[in-house]
Write a structure and sequence with these properties.
The chain has about 230 residues and is mostly helical. It has a three-stranded mixed sheet with strand order 1-5-6. The protein has a three-stranded antiparallel sheet with strand order 2-3-4. It has one domain. Helix content is about 60%, strand content about 10%. This is Recombinase zinc beta ribbon domain-containing protein.
Amino acid sequence: MPLKERSNVAVGESRRQGFCYCAYCGRLLQKENNPVNPYLFCVRQKYEVKNGCDEMKIMTIPLQAALSAMVVKYVSSLIELQTFVKRSKMKIFQNHKPEMTGDEIEKEILKLKQSTIGLNQRYHEGNFTKEIYILQKDKIKMQIEELEEQKSKIINGIGDMDEQKEWEQELEEKIERFKDRISFTESELAELIARVDVYSQTEIRVKWRFMDFTAKATDYFVRAQKIVC
């Protein structure tokens, strides 16, 4: 940025407020607090540029109304995602209920280990041949390994469920805060909107703060299927 331009650019808190940016140069749009009809503008329009910055004058009231309408639709999509999560979670765990709990598996593993001790004792007493002893010992070892694998899946599943509950709670809180409403303050919009790239009064591009909810839901159900299958 040229020195003469840099000296005229707003700095400090006034430059960092808001979430609307000029799509042409990337600068945060400044707000002209006209009490009758406030508007946003790009500070670069003060200089001789012809790339869109010079025509950047966005009326705040209609822009906020447009963003509020987009938030209404966005919250509706979050509600649909929440419904999908609840139905899918119920279906997965109804169809794949674990036959044993972690404690039950641990007890079964302990029994098998104790039976190995008894097997060794009976072998040394000459109750069966070495071949039968090895066969029985390998069988018990395989059973223990299978139970250890089941136990590991349950433990991992608990961790996944805790993580899933955390973002599911966050999703529910956002829905409860914003559902059944049609208008929002600028600070409320900023809770859901990370950035708005403004091209003109009627052309904007919105980046949502919680678009990763869908990715989290997909990732969770992929891992859940692996755990329960």
